[in-house]
Amino acid sequence: MVSFSPFDVTLWYATAASAPHTEPLSGRVQADVCIVGAGYTGLTTALELAKAGVNVVLLERQEIGFGGSGRNAGHCTPTFTHYSLHELRRMLGEPFAERLIERQTRANERVSRMIRDYQIDCEWVQNGYVMGAPHEGAMDEIRRKVETYNAVGAKTRLLCRDEVAAVTGSPRFHGGWLHEEAGHLNPLGYARGLGRAVIQERGKIFTGTTVTGCERDIGSGWRVTTDRGEVVASKVIFTTGAYTVGGWPKLDRTFKIQRVFVAATQILSEETRRTVLPHNTTIHDGRGDIYVYKYNAEGRIVASMFPMGRRGRDMAYTRQVMSDRLKWLHPELREEIRWDYFWFGELDMQYRTVPRFYDLAPGVVALTGLSGRGVPTGSMLGSILSEWALGKPENELALKLEPLKAAPFYMGFAPKMMLRYYRLRDNISTKLAGAELPPHA
């Protein structure tokens, strides 16, 4: 369930291009396909269908990009988290694993093309992503990433100590993994631009419209009821993710919520920007208890972490942790850091950390469980869902349809426990390697 802190002050709402004009649904509307949820997945699905000439209606309880699509940190790195490509193949089986790997690792081509074709104003830059190696022992995993991702066509390479220092401006990394195709953007601006593209292609978007149910409609397929009207459609797709509220029974039980917080500094001086992230890349500090950061178009550093203990609850302490980590990563940083914006987002986590595609009823599907891979993953999922809606056989899709299934009970606490485990593991390995720990580690 969506919950917000009184400290939520979201940078993207202050800087994103305006949203297209939309209104709530009123009365009865007929459609070929009705989509519920105007985040990246719903928007890109609607866009693909509208381009194909399908009469598509998209319903949103709040506004375009209100949920995770407008609250994430704006990283767009077409990779998987937690599981290696080898583990994904073993877990998902073939041919689905290879199909999904191909879609995900090529997702930024799709993002870049949509931004270009529809002239989306969203601060898009494609200057790469660096995962740092905090010590020599971390380089083995970096080497495996280079080998496995390059084997499927990604453009990545290994960085030595001097190269990673030159790219990031940080002397703290023993080496690193550079993903050259990665980028970053204003995520809310991107979502709003996708909404404008859907409308341009003659798709219909109704915001401020709460879906209250979905029932069979004799002779017409399905009737999606809302607080102000209804949509009658042959097919229905739920893409509400972590911000699922009603719509279909037990859909909100298919994942567990993991919160993440994002903060943005003041606009930093040109002198600072010449030494801190001088190539405007996205940086991952290489620890399991992650610290990921990059610039926005104004020159603010936007950084994200997961709550843990006091971190995320005590705002003064949290800001201090983020400042100390940034200054430790960049010892030459002399400018006083002030975090002008601070907000929370929610992730729909499930244990596989790859999306789950649910067969709810004949002609009705849902997709949840993006697990924090919003921008590239949500953008490529539209191609899969639109293929389903257009009648592509299930055994030819890039995700396997499965019965609705509740997330295991342990997912309510496992992600938090894993973060603590990662921190302990990294601290031990860093000490054994004779490297320096970051503050508050």
TrEMBL record:
Enzyme Commission (EC) number: 1.-.-.-
UniProt cross-references to InterPro entries, sorted A to Z: FAD-dep_OxRdtase, FAD/NAD-bd_sf
Keywords: Oxidoreductase, Plasmid
Domain of life: Bacteria
The FAD dependent oxidoreductase domain, residue ranges: 32-388
Keyword check for S-adenosyl-L-methionine: no
Keyword Oxidoreductase appears in the UniProt entry: yes
GO molecular function: oxidoreductase activity
Stored Pfam families: DAO
Gene3D superfamilies for this protein: D-Amino Acid Oxidase, subunit A, domain 2, FAD/NAD(P)-binding domain
SUPFAM superfamilies attached to this UniProt entry: FAD/NAD(P)-binding domain (SSF51905)
Name the UniProt record assigns to this protein: FAD-binding oxidoreductase
Organism: Shinella oryzae
